[in-house]
Amino acid sequence: MTMFFDQLYGIAQYYPVVLKGIGVTLALSFIGIVAGTFFGFVLGVGRASSHRWLAGIVGAYTDIFRGTPVLVQVFVVFFILPEAGIELDSFSAGALALSNITACFISEIVASGIKAIPVGQVEAAASAGLTRLQQLRLIVLPQATRMIVPSLVGQFVLLVKDSSVVSAIGLLDLTRSGWVIVQSIPNGLMVFSVIGMGYFVICYPLLHLSRRLEKAQLHNAS
Asked: How many C-alpha atoms does 185 have within 13 Å on its Cβ side?
């Protein structure tokens, strides 16, 4: 028992490393959420387009990234792009890869939300003289967004957890901070239990928000 508390105290001494790791994880997650949501909506509109060629191109693009491991994508951005003259530091590479994969998953969520809008509403908007852009901005997207918000929040939780892959390219995120600590305190179970709690603390507000939104959606539907 004494050894347990000694090791726990030792982990506590590394709080600056853990705090830095949390900061990097939060920064990556924030960038991924903002950029991924914006480009995800753009891709989602293209994916739901009535133009088959556009929907096909967007679908092929998103399928490639949704069907390959996030870690591989991070490696490609960090190690392969420099060979094409595009050099990024580990943070930028991680942010780019995470934003892109998030956008690809969100695009499918957005596309499904758009396709769920009754055709009659779109036809009525067209009859009222609204342009296609106005139909999208005033009729389609507001309703689709309300339907997909719980799914979007769930995707944000996945992004936070997926951000741990950047530790593989040397970025000191929350997971990497655990590897740093375990070099001095060889109790992997205890160290990574603490790291896991860190991710839980970050993700729990999003999980709670997702459940509340789902309940509100079900209440409104009834």
From this structure: 23
d(CA 141, CA 114): 7
**Which residues in the chain land under pLDDT 50?**
none
CA distance 47 to 167: 32
Rounded to the nearest 5°, which phi and psi values hold at 101? Answer: -65, -35
CA atoms lying within 13 Å on the CB side of residue 64: 7
Tokens 């939060």, residue located = 26
Q: Is 41 exposed, middle or buried (0-12, 13-18, 19+ CB in 10 A)?
A: buried
- Structural domain 2-221, CATH architecture: Orthogonal Bundle (1.10)
Using a 10 angstrom Cβ sphere, with 0-12 exposed, 13-18 middle and 19 or more buried, the burial of residue 122 is: middle
Its sign, for the CA torsion 52, 55, 61, 64, is: negative
The string of pLDDT tens digits covering residues 88-121 is 999 999 999 999 999 999 999 999 999 988 888 8
Q: Where are the domains of the chain?
A: 2-221
Instruction: Report the C-alpha gap between 144 and 163 in whole angstroms.
Output: 27
pTM reported for the whole predicted model:
0.89
